[in-house]
Amino acid sequence: MAEAQSSTPPRRRKSRVTATFKALLRTRITAGVLVVLPIYVTIFLIRFVFSAMRDASLWVVEAYLRSSLGTPLLDRWRANVPLPVGETESISVATALANLEERLGRVPNQEEFLDILPAPIEWAVAIVSVLLTIVILYGIGLFAANLLGRRVINFFESALDKVPLVKTVYRSSKQILATFTGEQSREFRRAALIPFPQEKMRCVGFITAIFNDSVTGDELATVFIPTTPNPTTGYLQILKREELVELNWSVEEAVRTIMSGGILRPDFLTIVPGADKRAELPEIRQPDLQPPDEVP
After folding, report:
1. Dist. CA 236–CA 186, nearest whole Å
2. What are the angstrom distances between the C-alpha of 290 and each of 107, 133, 158, 294?
3. What residues pair up with 89 in beta bridges, in sequence order?
4. Packing angle between helix 147-160 and helix 119-145, nearest 10 degrees?
5. Closest of 201, 210, 214 to residue 238, by C-alpha
6. Which residues are paired to 205 by β-bridges?
7. What does the pLDDT read at residue 127?
8. Strand, coil or helix: what is 171?
9. Residue 291: per-residue pLDDT
10. Ramachandran region of residue 65, left (φ > 0), alpha (ψ -120 to 50) or beta?
11. Which pLDDT tens digit goes with each residue over 63-107?
12. Is residue 162 within a helix (H) or strand (E), and if so which, with residue range?
């Protein structure tokens, strides 16, 4: 009996040590994830943007290198080709490309062509492709800014308007992009709490326009309600402005609140109408409405 009583405290101490160790391990792993995950997401987005911009113009650089103008560069660059015995042989990229084409019986594709290039040259080709994409985008923007460019774009859009499905997709995507960029982006700078999906609930949305009801004259608002954690999709609601709780938040603060599920939010937050610091908010500029395009 005495031996049984004396063995109980060590077990409790052991269980406490185990629980403390588990809690400490969980805390440290969570802290490590919070440090590594944002870095991983940032690197992933940078790689995605870099790859997209590289692939947009890589075919131009590749065509130049494979042409007669780029042949001297391929003859000058050296590639290390593995031999059957495990050693490597340094030959020109042009020779390695010709040998690969003879072995495959076809023209090497883009990925096979890049594998032949030395690592420094491959990075140089990628950087040149990104710079070429930036130059092309700048040239397109410069062309679209002048009178001739606008006429060409209007002609292109009028041709697309004759295709029913393509017209809808093109016009919708253009209007959405115009909402987030350019002059119309000024109308997307007011965050508010909206009674959605029911009266007793509030969700974060963006006021896109303020106007008057055509019948009653009441002040109405069109509000875009983004989804969590992906704010690029959402709902469009039209409701009275007095039913909104307009927030003195920036767009970045509102987007950060939506994407984090409310974990990261500004200090000021209330659901009481009238206590929302509306007097400190700049007035929303009314957009210059244009008549809708005639649909044939």
Report:
1. 18
2. 53, 34, 18, 12
3. 81
4. 90
5. 210
6. 192
7. 92
8. helix
9. 44
10. alpha
11. 888 888 888 888 888 776 666 666 667 788 888 888 888 888 888
12. none
Bridge partners for 234 per DSSP: 226
pTM above 0.70, yes or no: no
- Domain range list for the chain: 19-142, 146-181, 187-280
| 108-119 pLDDT, tens digit each | 888 888 888 888
Look up tokens 């590749």; give the residue: 62
| Torsion angle of C-alpha atoms 251, 177, 168, 156, degrees rounded to 10 | 170
Q: Which residue type, as a one-letter code, is found at position 56? A: A
DSSP string of 113-147, one letter each residue: HHHHS-HHHHHHHHHHHHHHHHHHHHHHHHHHHSH
Q: What is the average pLDDT score of the chain?
A: 78
φ/ψ of 292, rounded to 5, equals -65, 155
- SS3 (DSSP) at 239: strand
**Per-residue model confidence (pLDDT) at position 107:** 83
Please enumerate in sequence order all residues whose Cβ is within 8 A of that of 108, keeping only pairs 6 or more positions apart, or say none: 97, 100, 101, 116
Which regions in the chain score pLDDT beneath 50?
A: 1-2, 4, 183-185, 278-279, 286-296
